[in-house]
Amino acid sequence: MHSATHQAIAAVWRIESARLVAVLARMVRDVGVAEELAQDALVSALEHWPREGVPDNPAAWLMTAGKRRALDHLRRAKMQDGKHEELGHDLEAQEALVVPDFVDALDAARQDEIGDDLLRLIFTACHPVLSTDARVALTLKLLGGLTTHEIARAYLVPEPTIAQRIVRAKRTLAEAKIPYETPRGEELERRLASVLEVVYLVFNEGYTATAGDDWMRPELAQEALRLGRMLAGLASEEPEVHGLVALMELQASRMAARTDAEGRPILLADQDRGRWDPLLVRRGLAALERAAKLGGARGVYALQAAIAACHARARRSGDTDWKRIAALYGELAAVAPSPVVELNRAVAVGMAEGPAAGLAIVDRLRSEPALRRYQWLPSVRGDLLAKLGRKEEAREALLEAAELAGNGREKELLLQRARSL
Q1: Where would I find the RNA polymerase sigma-70 region domain in this sequence (predicted)?
Q2: Lesser CB count within 10 Å: N end or C end of the chain?
Q3: ∠ CA(279), CA(288), CA(144), 5° rounding?
């Protein structure tokens, strides 16, 4: 019985923890304190629910427990500050927010309020004052509901390292006095880029793991997709949010076809497209259309989603519109120039115009410092050389790529391709 109750608590926590922390952070104006109060509410559930049973509305129960602890925290803080006169007014206003345990559902206005709180939490957890690693860890903890152990396992990092990142991140936010708010105007655009970057970094690590023995970490990709969908609901008029969701939906649609029964990678050209998820494809195309209607067709994520859409629309690998993909990569290079984008354009040009045209672009990239340790540069070069019949050069390039690969499955794939030559 207790086991089933604990499983129910874990499931509710994964779904509701972000909303709970978001609401408590608005009350206490400190993300770190809010998370501690939310954890206290979770401990209370672990104490009461096994004895009393899971309540009819577990989300409201947790919210009530958390808010009561927030009120206690505010009382103590006010008393310590000696602000007795302000105490009554402030707490009276805050107590109006506490939902009784027996309430079955939150009304629409309160749901909108919680949506605003979640948006504030996302922008706070992804604040540029934090390092990228800290933003990723804090976002997964606060918004993904993942434990420190789960984050450490996913990124193959010692658990104490992740714990330190999260503690330092919360301390940095508190010391920098980062306001708990959704930015406006130009600041919104600047900060939104940071939020989307974090979500896509999490997705990419799930889609193709940088290290370890697994080609993918689906649970991370699913968390990123969940965060992206949440963000699209909260910032529905921001085209790049829909562009990112479109990109993740379309890429996630291929995940079942990306490995064989033994977990070995299957490259795009060799995948069984009948295993691509049609629902995710439809959702991705709909999100891409939404981004375009909002004027974001040339956004960085929307352009990448448009490339993914070209693959999704091709029933067979041979039907892929590589000229269109090469043109889209050209647009992407104009909007967000980078050596990696140019390398991807080289692949598309090689497919559209022949391997010699693609190789010419790749060879120009060999002097790029940013690609010096990037395994996909010699990998792409090896493929193009093989198509040109230059097998010995191709084999050497693929062996170089295998040497640079950090993921065990990826290394195995590259070595196998080298051996086949």
Answers
A1: 19-78
A2: N
A3: 70
Token pair 């060999």 is found at 366
Q: Are residues 154 and 195 in the same domain?
A: no
pLDDT category at 280 given cuts 50, 70, 90 is: very high
- Asked if residue 92 is part of any domain, the answer here is yes
Rounded CA-CA distance 351/320 in Å is 10
- Residue 175 makes CB contacts below 8 A (sequence gap 6+) with none
- Contact between 347 and 380 (Cβ < 8 Å): yes
Give the separation between CA 62 and CA 27, rounded to whole angstroms. 15
Residue length of the chain = 421
How many Å is the Cα radius of gyration of the chain?
25
CA distance linking residue 135 with residue 89, whole number of Å: 36
Last residue of a domain, one of 245, 270, 304: 304
Does residue 309 carry a pLDDT above 90?
yes
Residues 99, 64 contacting (CB under 8 angstroms): yes
For residue 114 the two structure tokens come to 């919680």
CA–CA separation, 340 and 350 (whole Å): 15
Spatial CB neighbours of 146, under 8 Å, sequence gap ≥ 6: 140, 154, 223
- pLDDT exceeds 60 at position 297: yes
Closest CA relative to residue 38, chosen from 67, 8, 76, 77: 67
CA torsion through residues 224, 225, 228, 233, sign: negative
* Nearest to 217, CA basis, from 142, 153, 146: 153
152-206 residue pLDDT tens = 887 878 999 999 999 999 999 999 998 888 888 888 878 899 999 999 999 999 9
- Two structure tokens written together for 218: 């689906």
Is 314 in contact with 286 (CB distance < 8 Å)? no
Kind and range of the H or E run holding 164: helix 159-175
In a domain, 359, yes or no: no
φ, ψ of residue 192 in degrees (nearest 5): -60, -35
Number of folded domains that form the chain: 3
